[in-house]
Amino acid sequence: MPKRFYTIIFFSLLCLSNAIAQVVTISGTITDFDGKPMDGVVVGVQNSSNSTFSNSKGQYGLRITPSDSIRLVFNYMGYLPYETVLNGVKADRKLDVMMRERSSDTQLGEVVVKGIRSQTDMVDKIDVSTLKAITSPSGGVESIIATGAGVSTTNEMSSQYSVRGGSYDENIVYVNGIEIYRPLLIRAGQQEGLSFLNPDMVGSIGFSTGGYDAHYGDKMSSVLDITYRKPVGFEASATASMMGASAYVGTGIKRFTQITGIRYKTTKMLLGTQDTDAEYEPSFLDLQTYMTYALSGNWEVSFLGNYSRNQYKFTPKTRETTYGTLENTKNFKVWFDGWEDDIFLTYFGAASIKGKISDKLEVGLTASAFSSDERERYDINGEYQLTDDNLNAGGGQGETGTLVGVGTYFEHARNNLKVNVMNIGHTGSLDLTNHKVKWGFTFQKEDIDDLIKEFELRDSAGYSLPYDGKIVNVFSGLMSDNKTSTTRTSGYLMDTYRFNALNGRVTLTAGVRGSYWSFNKEFIFSPRASIAYVPLEDSRYTLRFATGVYYQAPFYKEFQKVVEDEDGNSVIELNKDIKSQKSVHFVLGGDYNFKAAERPFKFTTELYYKKLSDLIPYTVDNVKIRYAGRNMASGYAMGVDMKLFGEFVKGTDNWVSLSFMKTNQKINGTNVPLPTDQLYNLSLFFQDYFMGHDRLKANIQGHLSQGLPTRAPQKSYDSGFFRTPAYRRLDIGFSWQLLGENFDVRHRSAFAGAFKNVWIGLDVFNLFDIKNTNSYYWVTDIFNQQYSVPNYLTGRQLNFRIIADF
User: Fold this and answer.
1) β-pairing verdict for 93-94 and 82-89
2) CATH 2.60.40.1120 is held by the domain 21-101
3) What share of the chain is helix, strand, coil (3-state, %, to 5)?
């Protein structure tokens, strides 16, 4: 070869090596103001396509060519952009950055509106500050959840909610990683009282409507993940209203923290807006404490304890319900004699120790015990008449109307249920480069003692129903005397891997979960995976996809099978052939973060399809779920959920949720919708303050959803259905800040100086006084023809409240 060729090769390699040598790296760690590393921060050179992401440890590395000066820009949704100019960049340089969360200049009391973060997993983070703003008869965390996309509630007296067509039992709730159980005997929302979650103690809220990862348990619909907070100093607050009172005190002293809350609730005032004139004596009490102590090194021990006493006493007198249309108006009157007395006692305790063996390895051990003692007692006799107000006895228009049905019924129950659940579990996590591996193992023992004795007698026009002309029959009855002692073992292993690909940031989570139950000797295996993508050039967008197998491991109610004994009585047997219900999730969604009028917004859309098999059909009456006790159905649920979140009013969190859904289950060859099927569901949460009067604010919570499918009692699951009317409700609340840290009037007296903030408020529940139908009472004539009389929920009611922070 000619020498000129070798010369060209030599100078080319020399230039290439010189170019490589001239590349320098800017690296460092990105944290928030709490010192926590920030994953997924976009780091780039301004006016250049050269950019990268930070990893799970907040570390980044950006390769650039030497320059006299460059401007670096750090961007993360929900945080203020950070910009810096580096002069004379000739060699590798280290640059650590602390980013400040975007917050509004306007504060509404204790509400500080924060920015919107990108969501790269299937668990949505909910701002805890909205808990104090919500106006709802049930109150608490569940009221916030019920306004989200894909979530439905049709009973303001209950904290239960349905997610994407699932039953109330398909929602799993965790507090500090411990699964929480709810009472089983409760049949009406008015008996329910306080939920376990104390909103005064909540530090963080995570909620997933599907596609959640493997470290969450065996439920088919949703996960609510609550963490109680650890105070850093002294804090206290007290609230009083016409519906009860609550107070909490928190302290943080060196290594020790504690937060303790007490709540009392009575719904007597609210129940008085219903059609039944009665002596209501509801009394609900809850006491909780969460304590932590930091040991030497990176270890911490904690304890979470709870005592709950929900008692419901009811002495009905009369009831009058008018329903129907102007052309077909009916009137239902009942004269009562009897009483109801229910009590639900709950005890819970959990102790844990967690710590770091190294900077990368963290382990924990938790032991917990849950005990519930539920007693249901009632003897209620009712004499009723049903009239058609548009017709008289001769078929014309009359004042008293035509008597359609008359009779007597008697309801009796002596039910006792004791549940004891104890478990011990181990969890761990290992941080690797771009990987975070998690695992866990739990052993659980369940002891259940169930005694049920209930029946209903009906007499129509002097005939006992069901009528056969020969003997007196019980209309319905149920007996149970069962004890079980079973164990469950479960474990999971999962990995979250973050990497740069396709000019963006990818988060891939995959894992498996396994569980074994000694009762039916069933082993279930659940693989689950999700992937999220954030484009490097435009981090306003986030795309997500998740899929997995989710089982509904049966608890006590699911495997109760009603059969007839030798005497023809309905008794409950426990079905040892029961299998876990199964749901395969496919979820495709995304977020779009944008600004309008210089305010942050986020629009979220998720499409989902759930393939259901081995279903145990059930019916819902008020909040009581009655299962068939057999795997005898299959089906699906599919739909789309949309949510627009942002500052519709500057300085406030607001959102509107809209969902469309179709469900189906096939029972004995017949296709019927799931009991929680709703074609549409619209919810909103809106806050506002009066211009020039920041101390006066208002909030609105609204619901509009299609009525639920229902059917006549004692009918088969596939015998047909009709729907209740649409659920429509709007609650509004007003708050006025008497004392506050933003304006100093506390010097006027020593008494006022003891408070940080004092608020007074007025709530208007069911603003438009809409009569929503919750369930039906069925009147049966001698020919066994049944008439459905609606049981209405609560009417309009005022509630005054006062909140004081110390």
Assistant:
1) unpaired
2) yes
3) 5, 60, 30
Which residue do the tokens 């009147």 mark?
A: 779
The tokens of 279 are what? 């002596």
β 435-460/361-388 pair status: unpaired
Average pLDDT along the chain:
86
Residue 472: what pLDDT?
47
Q: What one-letter code names the amino acid at 10?
A: F
Which neighbouring-strand residues pair with 381? 337, 410
Q: Nearest to residue 74, comparing CAs of 83, 85, 65, 66?
A: 83
CATH 2.40.170.20 fits 112-805, yes or no: yes
Sign of CA dihedral 75, 78, 82, 83: positive
Give the model confidence (pLDDT) of 505-544 as tens digits.
Answer: 899 999 999 999 999 999 999 999 999 998 887 778 899 9
Phi first, then psi, for residue 349 (nearest 5°) are -150, 140
Peptide bond into 725 cis (omega under 30): no
Dist. CA 377–CA 313, nearest whole Å? 10
Q: How many CB atoms lie within 10 A of CB 215?
A: 21
Check: CB of residue 733 under 8 Å from CB of residue 798: no
How many Å apart are CA 489 and CA 469, to the nearest integer?
A: 54
Nearest to 655 by CA among 134, 290, 61, 8: 134
Residue 108, H or E segment: strand 103-108
pLDDT in tens, 76-100: 866 778 888 888 788 888 888 988 8
pLDDT for the residue 756: 84
Residue with token string 């969190």: 653
User: What are residue 304's DSSP bridge partners?
Assistant: 290, 350
The yes-or-no verdict on residue 757 having pLDDT over 90 is no
CB 690 within 8 A of CB 161: no
H/E element, 492: strand 476-501
Amino acid at 513: R
Cα Rg of the chain, angstroms: 30
Structure tokens at 427: 């969890």
- Taking the C-alpha atoms of residue 276 and residue 744, their distance in angstroms, rounded to an integer, is 49
Q: Which two tokens stand for residue 382?
A: 């009712």
Complete DSSP assignment for 307-366: EEEEEEEEEEEEEEEEEE-SSSEEEEEEEEEEEEEEEEEEEEEEEEEEEESSSSEEEEEE
Distance of CA 3 to the CA centre of its chain: 78
**CB contact set of 202 (below 8 Å; sequence gap of 6+):** 128, 131, 141, 226, 227, 228, 229
> What is d(CA 335, CA 148) in angstroms, rounded to the nearest whole number?
41
The pLDDT of residue 456 is: 85
3-state secondary structure 440-490: EEEEEEEEEEEEEEEEEEEEECCEEECCCCCCCCCCEEEEEEEEEEEEEEE
Whether the CB-CB separation of 405 and 385 falls below 8 Å is answered with: yes
In single-letter form, the type of residue at position 508 comes to L
Q: Domain segments of the chain: what residues?
A: 21-101, 112-805
Token pair for 14: 């020399």
DSSP state of 678: -
Two structure tokens written together for 291: 């304590």
Bond into 466 cis (ω within 30)? yes
The torsion region of residue 390 among left (phi > 0), alpha (psi -120 to 50) and beta comes to: alpha
pLDDT band at 47 (very low <50, low <70, confident <90, very high): confident
| Cβ atoms of residues 658 and 681 within 8 Å | yes
**Number of other CB atoms surrounding residue 400 within 10 Å:** 11
**Eight-class DSSP state of 271:** H
Bin 598: left if φ > 0, else alpha if -120 < ψ < 50, else beta.
Answer: left
Give the span between the Cα atoms of 587 and 530, in whole angstroms. 9
Rounded distance between C-alpha atoms, residue 37 and residue 752, angstroms = 41
**DSSP letter string over 520-586?**
TTEEEEEEEEEEEEEESS-TTEEEEEEEEEEEE---GGGGEEEEE-TTS-EEEEE-TT---EEEEEE
